[in-house]
Prior knowledge:
Elements: H1 4-67, H2 70-78, E1 83-85, E2 113-119, E3 123-134, E4 137-148
Protein name: Prepilin-type N-terminal cleavage/methylation domain-containing protein
Keywords: Membrane, Transmembrane, Transmembrane helix
InterPro entries: N_methyl_site
Amino acid sequence: MLPYRQKILVKRGFTLIEVLCSITIFSVLFMTALFIQVDALKVKTYNEEMNNCTLVMEYVKNSIMYNCSYDSLLNLRMKERTYIDCSNLKFQHIKNINVTTLFSDEKPLKEPYIILKVTGEKVLRVNLQLHAKMYGNIKVEECDFYKGNYKK
């Protein structure tokens, strides 16, 4: 049997180890919860950005389909104005803007941006490509539709 003094010293040692273990477990759980919250915030901002870019692309598609003429599409193709920089565009701000003024001939330096490709002669095939950076990789979403030279 250990003398009484040695038993007290052993209990103090175990008490110190228990406190250190509980602090370590608490800090690990706290850091895990913190990382989960930060990742959730990143996913939320990414989803808001992608939603905004998708709405901008949908607006551009509908505006070209229903409000642009055949000649204005040919004009965009001739001037090679095929890029829309989506990084600073908000869907609420572009509702009252003519969509042809959003196009430029310079490729944006960073994602997200939209590329317009117009092919064909009598019936134009319009291809819109949304280039967006998703978790370090560039993701491309495409949309195709046709525009013809129809008289009403």
